[in-house]
């Protein structure tokens, strides 16, 4: 079973593009997505490094 792809609109040409694609396959412009659909952002507390 495969996960359905999440799409975003290319800001340059408007084509639906997979949110994990680095660039639009139609026009070649870079695609910038803050958080791809299948990744959950997490925040971790800072790690104390020994000095």
Automatic annotation (TrEMBL):
Residues 7-31 form the Putative zinc-ribbon domain. InterPro entries: Znf_ribbon. This is Putative zinc-ribbon domain-containing protein. It comes from Roseimaritima multifibrata.
